[in-house]
Structure formats: C-alpha cells, structure tokens
From TrEMBL:
This is 7,8-dihydroneopterin aldolase. It catalyses: 7,8-dihydroneopterin = 6-hydroxymethyl-7,8-dihydropterin + glycolaldehyde. Pathway: Cofactor biosynthesis; tetrahydrofolate biosynthesis; 2-amino-4-hydroxy-6-hydroxymethyl-7,8-dihydropteridine diphosphate from 7,8-dihydroneopterin triphosphate: step 3/4. Belongs to the DHNA family. Residues 12-122 form the Dihydroneopterin aldolase/epimerase domain. It comes from Tessaracoccus lubricantis. The gene is folB. Catalyzes the conversion of 7,8-dihydroneopterin to 6-hydroxymethyl-7,8-dihydropterin. SUPFAM superfamilies: Tetrahydrobiopterin biosynthesis enzymes-like (SSF55620). Pfam families: FolB. The keyword Lyase applies. NCBIfam families: folB (TIGR00525), folB_dom (TIGR00526). Keywords: Folate biosynthesis, Lyase. InterPro entries: Dihydroneopterin_aldolase (IPR006156), FolB_dom (IPR006157), GTP-CH-I_C/QueF (IPR043133).
C-alpha cells in the first residue's frame, strides 16, 4: 500500500533457521555434514487489515523451503545455497524482494572465528 506516492516496505523476517547440510568443497564436509543457519527477510506489501493468511506469505512454507535447500542437494558454495533459497522465496507470489544470509559457523578454517556468512538480496523487478 502506498501513501502519497511513497511505497510501503513491509517485512517478514525469519532468523536462525538451522538444519544440517552437506555443502562445501572438501570431502569431509560432504561426508560429515554440518549445521547451516539461515536468516531470511521478505519484503512485500502486507495487508494489515483483512487478518487472512491468504493475503500474506505463510512463513511456515518459507521455513520449509529453506530447510529443503539446506538438507537437499549438496553444493560447493554457500553462495549457491543462498541463491536457491532466494529463488524459492521469490516464488511466493507476494514477495517483491528477499535478503538471505547463509551462515556456516563450522567452516573449515584454521583461524579462530565465530561465523562465516554470505548475504544476498534479490528482487523480482530486476
């Protein structure tokens, strides 16, 4: 909904969706798997009046899509995982833009670190 020509930017955010995946370029990552944590922000025009699930995006469906990608076909790069999640999110008809962060907290680094992540934003209007 717009007020005086200014588009409304509403958001639905899912944070910390966690599942085990087998993504990575090293054999042990493909063999042993590891947790991946995903944050998703959906941008869409929200109907805040009707109180009908049909007039929004069901975030349970989005969470299931995220889990399916994480636990699905192994990918070398978390960039690819993030892209697949973004594509699925944009498949929910009301979503105009999505930002996806894929965290790989057990990435195979020798240095001390707390997280490795990739963040991408995609829009259906590009």
């Amino acid at each position: 909904m717009e007020a005086k020509g200014v588009p409304t930017i509403d958001r639905i955010t899912l944070s910390g969706l966690t599942a085990t995946g087998f993504h990575g370029v090293f054999p042990q990552e493909r063999r042993e798997g590891q947790p991946f944590v995903v944050d998703v922000t959906l941008e869409l025009d929200l109907d805040t009046v009707s109180d009908e699930l049909a007039n929004t995006v069901n975030y349970a469906d989005v969470a299931a899509d995220v889990e399916a990608v994480i636990t699905g076909e192994p990918r070398d790069l978390i960039e690819t995982v993030a892209g697949e999640i973004a594509d699925r999110c944009l498949g929910h008809g009301r979503v105009d833009r999505v930002t996806v962060t894929v965290h790989k907290p057990r990435a195979p680094l020798t240095q001390t670190f707390s997280d490795v992540s990739v963040t991408i934003s995609r829009s259906r209007h590009v």
